[in-house]
């Protein structure tokens, strides 16, 4: 019996160590979210109290801020817009970044490397200037004031990075595997689809997560291109309609952030899992 | 653009091709086309369409009223009206995008940053609308012209402004036998007396609109001016500036806390609503916030006229709000008609905004005015139009003034003084230098 | 891809403003104008501090967190899910939550610090005003940036670590190398591509990020948190002097480009 017990004790000790070490990270990451949650449920007068313990309720919690979102704003539409935009952006990004990343990683196109550098340079051009020529393009296509404008614009931000990211992943795939496939009669394209993509699932998932997250981070493009209340993505709708002059609707702001952030976090976590598993199970062997 | 949608249908094949080219994703062709087809077909537009860009008002109910009011007008006149709302601080970006695109709304709103002079070559001349309204309602208040007039023509239509009165705690003042803050000196004495009792005051000393507005009110009330009446040259460097800055330093040291360095436009509302402030100088949003969150404090909060700096001298810098019509608009006639209608009904707007929206036309000040005329505490607001001024006082809202306001030079200069790390003369040297530099750049351009 | 850049460059060399499409070539006038203003130097300095300090903390927190998450333990998935939340919240909204936490009066951070006796009570001289004291305000902006991005660094690193084949590590262990040696000579070179791209990307994004500072302080108090993109936005868009705004925002380009090319070429050499 002594053996297992010491093993168990060791395990418990190890866990305590790890939990202890993780606690600060969890607090840093989660505390602001807890704070948002509690704010979202507080009645307004409860917010402006300095004497009482701020992390709990002193007046009854309320759903008011949540119901305000759905009855007085287009919150439902914003959420749908955001999700659909993000999905389209992810799809478009992959369609462009997979071939591009593969080409940069494998094919001996003259100047491919420098082209890669040039792709990265686009990030150095600040969005605050870039939105003006983009406004022209968006308007020429008749997409102004529709969320399709953002489906068009966000890939300009996501594609370069995802191309680089995927290039990194593709390079880790042993060339021999592909050559074997090509010997078996697949072309470059076939090798990409049948051999490289399946083992690059984690990289692709990373790219998807990235594209998804990034399309939820923009504020300026959304603001400049989409003004109608029912076309806004949530990232623009919330700050533009819940901050009014010098009045902040704190409760509703926080409620809005939570309702969009938490599901995405869960979704992300699901993807993350696949993506880390994928790496260990795929490329490693 | 009125017929943006029909044009778009005509060109749709071309658009798609272009769209694909830009997206650079030939592989995605099939799905992108499906995607464009799936896009909701816009409802057929009957008559014309009028698109209005408007800010998100402090009072949500006002926006709801405005949208409905506009729609009803549209129904009567066979015009389809659509109103979009974004915060006033973000309007410059949106305006730049619409101008670059050459399309967007027909009517565009400006709040606090009035960009008429920047865009006037691309705006519709609204002089006729303004003259007509002026004739009908006893003329415009003097400050209105400075906002929108370029080379003798009006390229915008002032619609309302937002006042910032003194909001003081009568109970605290009475308990310490203090006189009501009718002069800045009295306000300073009150803050000096009440700060040790846990009731300081505060005016934002950060980079926000409040800081730009309220310190200017104080400066102008001490006889200072920012620019020549023509707007051509800055007049900041003066004896009055030195007096004002000495006073600002004193009122900060004696009556405020360093919190004001971190404030945004909403902080003084909370300062009052939480029962701490002895007085704040703010828009009546602070008054309304207190009403909603702290009734006892609200009961004893009273309003005062802009305090005097020099004896008899009161200048209240208000946040202006202006409408403009793009030249690229295909529906300028409807835009003008709607604006005329809106001016005819600006008192209704005042009611719906719970007394925020102050009109620019003289006849509107016949007492009692709606909302504020019947509330004994708010009645004092009716006396503001004579003393209202805007950025660049006494000159117009020129482009250098816009840059000075948007880069917060004036409040930064006050901040430097109040921090006490450098002398008043050093701060002035910096502030005046920035003013000169910016004016010089705009002259060169 | 080059078109937007050329457009910005054209703006930076012209006297364009937002309301006047007819611009004239003015050479380096806009850059000279930027250099004449001391606000520009403050912004440049703040931008560098913001990026460098932020990167250091993101690196530290990200690496240590990745190591912790590499260990097997009960509830790992759950913890991983928790720590990535900051990265998934829309930035325009989560910054507002921080703004509320930094509030000069109702700051929950101060409430705690005050309760455990680290700072005085509200109204006393040692009650920190997060967004009001110059160094604190800049620190507050950096904290938000680090808070938001360190989970991402951790995940990228984690993916990198797990991609190193255990056989190689075992072989190295058999050869008698220490943990640090294995880390330095086996793991780091293998994950270098991902690491470098992540780092470059983060640097460029942090340098051009407007939203945190814009929403927290607008660059105040008295420019203590002004960074280049915020200044460029205020001058170029809000005040309408497009040419000068473009010049300010492109200022870092000549500095960053050689650095990036150097790094990327170096990366390429390593791989072959």
Structural overview:
The complex is a heterotrimer of chains A (285), B (445) and C (272). Chain A contains 14 helices and two strands, in the order H-H-H-H-H-H-H-H-H-H-H-H-H-E-E-H. Chain A is mostly helical and 285 residues long. Chain A has two domains: 2-62, no CATH class; 74-281, MetI-like fold (Orthogonal Bundle), CATH 1.10.3720.10. Chain A has a two-stranded antiparallel ribbon with strand order 1-2. Chain B folds into two domains: 46-162 and 319-365, D-Maltodextrin-Binding Protein, domain 2; 166-317 and 407-444, D-Maltodextrin-Binding Protein, domain 2 (3-Layer(aba) Sandwich), CATH 3.40.190. Mean pLDDT of chain B is 86; it is low at 1-46. Helix content of chain C is 72%, strand content 0%. In chain C, helix 10 (179-208) packs antiparallel against helix 14. At the A-C interface, helix 1, helix 5, helix 6, helix 8 and helix 11 of A face helix 1, helix 3, helix 4, helix 5 and helix 6 of C.
Descriptive labels:
heterotrimer, A: 285 residues, MetI-like fold, two-stranded antiparallel sheet, 75% helix, flat, disordered C terminus, B: 445 residues, alpha/beta, D-Maltodextrin-Binding Protein, domain 2, 2 domains, 5-stranded mixed sheet, 3-stranded antiparallel sheet
List the helices and strands and how they pair.
The complex is a heterotrimer of chains A (285), B (445) and C (272).
Chain A (H helix, E strand, L loop, with lengths): L1 H40 L2 H4 L16 H9 L2 H32 L5 H10 L5 H14 L7 H6 L1 H18 L2 H9 L4 H12 L1 H14 L5 H6 L8 H9 E2 L2 E2 L1 H32 L4
Antiparallel strand pairs in A: 1-2
Helix pairs in contact in A: 1-14, 3-14, 4-8, 4-11, 4-13, 8-11, 9-10, 11-14, 13-14
Chain B lengths: L3 H7 L1 H12 L5 H10 L9 E8 L4 H18 L1 E8 L4 H11 L5 E5 L4 H4 L7 H10 L7 H5 E2 L2 E2 L2 E6 L3 E4 H6 L8 H11 L14 H13 L17 H17 L11 H7 L5 E3 L3 H9 L1 H5 L1 E4 L11 E2 L1 E7 L6 H13 L1 H7 L35 E2 L9 H8 L2 H11 L4 H21 L1
Parallel strand pairs in B: 1-2, 1-3, 10-12
Antiparallel strand pairs in B: 3-11, 4-5, 6-11, 7-8, 7-9
Chain C lengths: L1 H11 L16 H8 L1 H33 L5 H8 L1 H4 L2 H11 L6 H8 L18 H30 L2 H9 L4 H30 L2 H6 L11 H11 L3 H9 L2 H19 L1
